[in-house]
Amino acid sequence: MRAVCFDEFSARPVLRDVPAPVPSPGGVVVRVEATGLCRSDVHGWLGHDDGITLPHVPGHELVGTIEAAGADVHRFSVGDRVTTPFVCACGRCPECLSGNGQVCRNQTQPGFTHWGSFAEFVALHDADTNLVAVPGSLDAGAAALLGCRFATSYRGLVHQARLGDGEALVVVGCGGVGLSAVMIGAALGARVVAVDIDGAALERAARFGAVRTIDSSGLSRASVLAALAEAAPAGFDVSVDALGREETAAVGILSLRPRGRHVQIGLFPADPVIPMGAVIGRELSVLGSHGMPARDYPGLLDLVAADRLRPQDLIERRIALDEVPDALVAMAGDRSAGGVTVVDLGWTPPTR
Q1: How many CA atoms lie within 13 A of 304 on its CB side?
Q2: Do 137 and 22 fall into the same domain?
Q3: 20 to 30 A from 108, CA-CA: which of 15, 28, 128, 222?
């Protein structure tokens, strides 16, 4: 099969022919239809994940059809169209048995623990636990995005923060995850305010449901908090840090009303200093969101089926598999255009 590979961390990936995977007894091999390009893929390529062994094929957000299945797979069959959470659970450990496969102690992650979806085929393990059936009518790019950023944002807002209709939500950082949170918050009836340093990102946030946007470029923390206090005088019910910086987490936490809930989705390069005085004094909740188990996808899919949530609207570019190396390098240098990029294996770039 053709796959995007790298043999050294930070060395330019290349598209080449490699052996196709075979299914494990409880796993499947999926013919990839589309796969998202996520900043987590860049972190893996740069060597920030110690679980990756070389050579490696990245990619973890995907949709496709089952090409082959192991003898122990019973709930799915060859030809089924599926996606999967980026955290694939074992289904047997205490976390899985309690319904929390997103923190499975034996988890596998395509594109990290084993070869991923920047390829024509990808192996997925423990299929009966992890696969999610996808209707044929759903756009391939939209289906792929359900595996990581939308699932993580949905679980953070719905299952962790329990965001309610009419509540005030602030999303700090309007990349792919942040915009997913904006869209989901609006779909749930929240009053969403978005914060970012990039005007184009804020324009997208407004288009996707934010009732107010705040350009924080060049502003002090006090100035950003003053703008947020003007937007929600009583404080926000829920905050999301979708970027993962000490400053953005602090802004989210300090913008909350007493007993408010902060959801941390963005990953930090190092452990941050958190304003614990506010957490204690206001009795705030600080919650993480690390993906979502397959069993919890029905609520997310219901929003999509009702057209209240349109992941496809987040897609700004569709590229072919051979364009992935350039796209990864560009994203690592922050030279990629804004918005979400989806790798469509049926995509043929227009002739010029």
Answers
A1: 23
A2: yes
A3: 15
